[in-house]
Amino acid sequence: SGGGSGDKASGGGDKQLTVGFSQVGAESGWRTANTKSVQDAAKKAGINLKFSDAQQKQENQIKAIRSFIQQKVDVIAFSPVVESGWDTVLKEAKDAKIPVVLTDRAVDSKDESLYATFLGSDFVEEGKKAGDWLVKEYQGKTEPVNIVELQGTTGSAPANDRKSGFGDVIKGDAKFKVVASQTGDFTRAKGKEVMQAFLKSQPKIDVLYAHNDDMALGAIQAIEEAGKTPGKDIKIISVDGVKDAFTAMAASKINVVVECNPLLGDQLMELIKKVKKGETVERRIKTVEGVFTMDQAAAALPNRQY
Ligand code: GYE
Fold this sequence. Notes:
One of its GO terms (molecular function) is carbohydrate binding. By secondary structure, the protein is an alpha/beta fold. The protein has helices spanning 29-45, 58-70, 87-95, 123-137, 157-170, 188-201, 213-225, 243-250, 265-277, 294-300; strands spanning 18-23, 48-53, 75-78, 100-103, 117-120, 145-151, 176-183, 207-210, 235-240, 256-259, 284-286, 291-293. The protein is elongated and about 60 Å long. Beta-D-fucofuranose binds at residues 27-28, 30-31, 104-105, 158, 186, 212, 214, 239-240, 260.
């Protein structure tokens, strides 16, 4: 190289990495746990993390990514709030030769060269697990089962995929009817508000499928305020597995939780280091997750990590 800058560390692989991380927001218990995991892991790995919270707005994420490019960070990591509309800014990162690692949520870009790898859950699989539980629960029954669905943030990968995975499983049996489906933005407040509207507009609700725990917990309040018993009058299926949901499940208010692990920090830092070094990494790394039912809730609660 020459030039004699005297910077011995450069190129030696020991230089402290600076990573720009654009987080979705702080909409849920899952997200709070994810943020903490990423921040703790960066510290542990000696990585200088520039953290930016997008408050569930794509425009904020695009701004953050552009600012990371300007600051010439070593790697950009982000959890895209929605799936579409990233090609332009990702192309800018590519032109600046800054590798991008996706975590938690995916983008729908056709051009796979726009990011190095994607670490996160399989949301279609989660939706299917939710559907499988329901099919089993109503096995041998013939009466119609009316389902209301609280969707996650419109256009987000987990909302799209949890809806489609669930839909694919239940469409095999005509007794299952999704009578209402609306977004609750992955928040408690919105989950409660939309459930209140469902309870007013729907004469008979048998099952609530909530795309995350926070919406389920908000909906539980609405159901109780309407004089009904959550978990019994209305069965509840949720996704994530945060502690508050396990507490509600141990109190028989949620019937089943499909787990989605937010503790991705350590794995993410490992990947970032490898990508920076130019090592080959898998294009898609999935997290391993389970399903928990009411009868398992009390025993599982003390061991929950988030
Ligand atoms: O399920 C929800 C959060 O993208 C997996 O986002 C994540 C989802 C999670 O708001 O609680």
